[in-house]
Input
Amino acid sequence: MTSDDKIELLIKHIKYSPSREWINSYFDLVKRVLDVTGLRNDDPRLVMSLSPNNTGWHFPVTINNRYVVALHKKKVNDQNRLFVGLIFGSPAKEIPKFRDSYDQDLGKWGQFKNLRGEHSKPPFFLRFANFPELLYWLETSDQVYQCWHEALLNEVERAKASPFRKYHKPLMYKMAADVNFRAEILDMAYTESKPGLDLLPEQIDEPNEFYEGASKTICVNAYERNSQARNACIEHYGVKCTVCGITFQKKYGSISKGFIHVHHIKPLGEIGSEYKIDPINDLCPVCPNCHAMLHMRKPPYSINELRAMLQK
Output
């Protein structure tokens, strides 16, 4: 299978998801798995595969021959549903949130069998029907987070290599770890729902190399803005203004879906040469009003300075 074929297959499976935001959250979760475990693309314990099948498990991540996170496509009442499977330690059965939400939020309880040399209670692989609820629990419940965190670390220490390493696809690792590449793939999959929309006059949409800084004059003296960098920022932070908190779709409805400006924290006019931009640390989403207020001073106000003004 060629590189183009793999990307085509990846995009095909991405389109099974309910929305761009949903699948981006899934790959954010996969990235968290990589961050917690410290596993990198060349680690023999890690396998991130890309199945050619239309049914079953999609975008699975295994550590030492055991699933730790995956998507499961299944027909429920003649409709395709996506479930998120996630590993948890054996104490998962004692977590009230899991017990109380079984019928609504958990699609299925599953427990692994002991592998060779494993004598402790094996972990669970829980299939969640309500993915946003799962993410909320991981953020707000220490008990849920610790049960998940410890299960991941146990898998890392359990063996030194996976017998299925030959099925690992670096493309899938890049999809999780590289938010810029992910934004580009999601742009290809969702051509009508790119997160970046209208810009301030000094922002120019030029999706060339992932660098910024070449001076231009379009209405005003300006610098190139890279669409991939902007989209990667919004994929990470969402479309909520980081200063005042407004989300335009909640205020104005569907006509404003995805609308937001992106603020360059370090003004490009002060850099004067090309540089490699970090869309997470160099950019942040802001509404047009706050964006204009940030630029009412040279150098611009900081995000925290403008927040403090709103609180007065």
